[in-house]
């Protein structure tokens, strides 16, 4: 998998800010990127759920109309 850097928007679905704890928060990723047919887009990071910096093990996103790639992972603050 070739690594391509692109802007990523991440959204946390954690409800009210006063309820923040060490509990996992569903984080949604959305990337607008045109890639060759048959290619994939993944989010890579330090968390094991994001591949622990291994591009081949990252969170693979799903393609949507308009060349938008989306995915989600439950991440805790210590990840």
Task: Describe what you observe in this structure.
0% of the residues lie in helices and 34% in strands. The protein has strands at 9-12, 25-32, 42-43, 59-60, 62-64, 68-75. The strands form two sheets. It has a four-stranded antiparallel β-sheet with strand order 1-2-6-5, with no helix packed on it. Strand 5 (62-64) and strand 6 form a beta hairpin.
Q: How would you state the average pLDDT, rounded?
A: 81
Main β-sheet description: 4 strands, antiparallel
What class would the helix/strand composition place it in? mainly beta
Order of helices and strands: EEEEEE
Shape: flat
Question: How would you concisely characterize the structure shown here?
Answer:
With 79 residues, the protein is mainly beta.
What keyword list fits this structure?
single chain, 79 residues, mainly beta, two-stranded antiparallel ribbon, flat
Q: SSE layout and pairings?
A:
Blueprint: E1 9-12, E2 25-32, E3 42-43, E4 59-60, E5 62-64, E6 68-75
Antiparallel strand pairs: 1-2, 2-6, 3-4, 5-6
């Amino acid at each position: 998998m070739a690594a391509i850097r692109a802007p990523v928007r991440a959204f946390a679905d954690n409800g009210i800010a006063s309820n923040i704890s060490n509990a996992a928060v569903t984080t949604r990723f959305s990337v607008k990127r045109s890639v060759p047919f048959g290619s994939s887009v993944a989010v890579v990071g330090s968390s094991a759920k994001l591949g622990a910096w291994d591009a081949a093990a990252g969170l693979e996103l799903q393609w949507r109309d308009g060349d938008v790639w989306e995915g989600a992972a439950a991440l805790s603050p210590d990840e």
